[in-house]
Amino acid sequence: MDQAQIYAKLTSVFRDVLDEDNLALTPETMADDVDGWDSLSHIRLVLAVSKSFGVKFSASEIGGLKNVGEFVELIQKKI
Amino acid sequence: MSLTSPLFFAFLAGVILAYHISESVRYRRLVLGFGNAIFIASYLTDYIQILPLLAFLLLGYACVSILSVWKSSLALGLAVLGVLACYVFLKRFSFFDDLGRLPFPYLTIGLSYILFRILHIMVDVHSGDLEERIGPTAFFRYTCNFLCFVSGPIQRYQDFRAADGIAVVKLDAETVFQAFSRVVAGYAKFVIIAAVAEYAFSFLKPQLLQAGDPSFAKLCMLYAATASLYTVYLYYNFSGYMDIVLGSGFLLGQALPENFDKPFSARSFLEFWQRWHMTLSQWFKFYLFNPLVMLLMSCFPAPALTAYLGVFAFFITFLVMGVWHGTTAVFVVYGLLMGAGASINKLWQVACADRLGKKRYRTMTETLGYVYFARGVTISYFVLALTCLWTPELSDFTRLIGRLGPAGMSAAFAGIALAFGLFWWLADQIAPHLTAPAFLANARDSLVGRNLTLASQMMVIVAVTALLHKSPDFVYKAF
C-alpha cells in the first residue's frame, strides 16, 4: 500500500471516528488543528486504525505521535 | 550532595573537565558512570545503606534481561508486579507496615524515579520499541544519571542513548554562557524566590496550625496565604532545581527534557498537568492512562461512552500519581483530590460541549472573563490540594480542615481564585507596556551587558543566601 492509499484510508477512519465529514489530512496536521482530536479520541483513532490496517501500536508509539505524517510513516512501517 | 552546595559545584566541574579530556565514547561513558557512583556515594555514611538500592537495580536489570528474550505478557505482568512490590517495600509506605522493614537505615533518594525508568524500559523492551540489548553499565548510567537521580526529569532511554557519551559538545563561549545563564537562573529561583517564600511559609504555618482561636476571617486569610506561599515555594524550588540540572546537562552533551512550561498560565486542571512536572505527566500518560483507556474502550466500544471512560481513566491516573507523592495516608487524600480535579474538569468539558456545542464552547473559553476565571479556579484548586504535602500527618490535616469547615475552605478557595485571577489580568495588562527602549535592550544583549546581568544575579544570590543564613533543601527529594 503506498502513501496516497494510506492517506485515503486514514482520512476515512479520521472522518468516521471524529464525525467530521469534511476533514482533510496533511502530513503536518496535528491534534490541535482538528476539532475533537483530544487524548481520548486519539486512543479511539488508534484502535480504529489498528483494526482497519491490521496493525498494533506500542505504548510509546501511541504517546509519541506528533502529527498525521508520523502516523502514516508508522503505519507504512508496520504493514 | 545537595545541588546547591559548593561540593556539588566542585563535583560538577570535575566531571565536566574529566569528560572533555578525551573524545573517546568509552572513556566518556566511564566518566559518567564514575560520576554517578560518586554522586550516590555522597549520600551514604555506611556501605550497607546502598545495598537495597543495588538489589532494586539488579532486580530491574534481571527483569529487563528476561523480557528481552521472553516477550510474553505474562512475563511483563510478573516483572512489573515484582518491581512494584520491591519498590513499595523499600519505600516504607505506612499502609504496608505489616510487610516488615529492613533492620537498618538505607538510601531511598531517587528510588521513585529509578522505578519510572525501569518500568519504561521493561514495557518498551516487551513491545519491541527497544530492541537492542542494554548492557549493565548502560543500564546503570541511565537509571542513576546523577543529573536526574534525585528528582528527574524522566528522560526516555531512547533519548538518553542518543547522547550517552556520544553527543558532540563544543564548549565554546556561547554554549558555556547559555549553560551558566540557565544554572544561575535556577539558583536565583532556588535561593531567592523559593527561599523567601519558604521563610514566610515557615513563619505562618505554626500560627495556622497552633490551637489558637483566631476569628473566622483571620483563619481563612492565614490559610489562603500559607497555602499560596507553599505553592510559590514548591514551584520555584522545583523549577529552579530543573534549571540547574538542565543547564549542567548542556555541558555534558545531555539535552534533558523540560519539566515546566508556565504552569500557572493554565486555564484548566488538565492543562495544568500538561505544564507542571511534564515528564512525570507524560510517563503516566504513556504507561497508565493510554493503556487503561484502550482497555476500557475495547471492553465498552460504544462511542457515546468515550467521555465517561475518559473521566474514569483520568480519575485513576491522577489518583495513582497523587498517591505516588508520599508514603502516608494523607497522600491518598491528595491522590483523591487530584483524581477528582481531573474528572470534574473532564466532566465540565463534556457537559459544556454537549450543551453549547463544540464551537460555542470553544468561543466561550476564549472570552476574557472565562480565561481569568478559569486560571484563578485552576490555581486555587491546586494550591488547596497541596495542603496534603505540607501537612503529611493525617491528624494535622483533618484538624486543619475541621477548623476551617466547608465555609472556611470555600472562602479560601474563592479568595485565592480571585487573587490569582486578578494578578494574571493585571500582569497581562501591564506586561505589553514593559518593553525596554531600544538602546537599553541593545546594551542588555551585548556581551558586556549579558555578563554583567549574570554577575549581578550571582551577587544577589550570594547576598540573599548570606541574609537568610541557610541554603534551602530540595523539596521534591522527599517524594
Describe the overall structure:
- Chain B: Pfam families: MBOAT.
- Chain B: Its main location: membrane.
- Chain B: This is MBOAT family protein.
- Chain B: GO terms for molecular function: acyltransferase activity.
- The complex is a heterodimer of chains A (79) and B (479).
- With 79 residues, chain A is mainly α.
- Chain A has a single domain, classed as ACP-like (Non-ribosomal Peptide Synthetase Peptidyl Carrier Protein, Chain A, Orthogonal Bundle).
- Chain A contains 4 helices and no strands.
- The longest helix of chain A is centred in the first third of the chain and has 16 residues, at 3-18.
- Chain A is globular, with a radius of gyration of 11 Å.
- The mean pLDDT of chain A is 90.
- Chain B is mostly helical.
- Chain B folds into 3 domains: 6-162, no CATH class; 173-256 and 435-478, no CATH class; 263-432, no CATH class.
- The longest helix of chain B is centred in the middle third of the chain and has 37 residues, at 173-209.
- Chain B starts with 5 loop residues before the first helix and ends in an 11-residue tail after the last helix.
- At the A-B interface, helix 2 and helix 3 of A face helix 5, helix 11, helix 12 and helix 14 of B.
